[in-house]
Amino acid sequence: MKWVQSFYEKQYKLIHHDGNIQISENHVKLLKKMESMVNKDFSSILELGAGMGEFAITAAKNGYHVTAIEIISSAAKHIREMASQLSIDGRLQVITDDFYHVPISQSFDVVCYLDGFGIGGDQDQRELLRKIHDWLQPSGCAIIDIYTPWYWLSTNGQEMSFSNFKRKYGFDANSCRMLDTWYDLKEPSEIYTQSLRCYSPEDLRLLLNGTGLVLTEIYPGGALDYANWQYYEEVSLIKAMSYTAILKKE
Fold first, then answer.
1. Which one of 80, 99, 180, 189 counts the least CB within 10 Å of its CB?
2. CATH classification of 4-146+200-221+243-249 is 3.40.50.150, yes or no?
3. 141 has which bridge partners?
4. Which of 199, 195, 204 shows the shortest CA–CA distance to 151?
C-alpha cells in the first residue's frame, strides 16, 4: 500500500488544481440512495476516505452527524473550511489520518467506503473489515463500493485525456487488480498508479470469513460505455464497474 499517499496527493492536485470543489445534485442522490439501502432511521455516519468531502458535507447539511477520515491533509483542510463556511462544522468531524491506524472509540449507525476499497491485499482488507465491524453499532450496517473484475478486465488499455493529465487503465489478471495510471502532462516524468483488488460477490463472501460481518445485499452500480462516452447509472451486475455491498454484523 506504499503508493496510496503519493497517488491520492497527486490526484487531488490534478483534479482540483484551481481549488474549486462543488457539491452537486449527484451527491444528494447518493445520500438518498444510501438512506434507501439502510431502510431505517439513522443519525451517525463514518466515512472512510472522504476525498474532497462532497458526500460528507452533503450528509451533514441534511442533519446527519458525520465523521470523515481523509489521509490527504490538503483535502481534509478544504473539507473543514467548507464545513465552517456552511455552518455545519458542529455536525462534521474531519480526521486527517490513515483509517488502518486511526484510533476511534466511537461506534456508528453507518460506516461507508464509497470508492477505493481494495487498496491492499486480502489480509489488509480483512484487517479493515474487522475494524469496520468494531466501529458499527450492533444494528448498524456498512456500505462499501466493490470493483468487479470483469468490468476492469474489459477496460484494459483504455486511455482518457484531460486538460492537464491523462489516464490509462490496466488489469493485473494474476492478482485480480485494476490499475489506474495518471500522467501529469506538465511533468511527463511524474507517473502515478493506483492498484485496487477486485472482488466478485462470492470472493467478497470468502473475504468476510472471520471478520464478524456478513454480506446481506448487493446493488449493481453503473458503467461507462467508452464507444460513445456515455455513462449508465444502473446496469446489470455482469456489466457494472462496481457494486455496493451491504454488510452487517453476524
1. 189
2. yes
3. 110, 248
4. 199
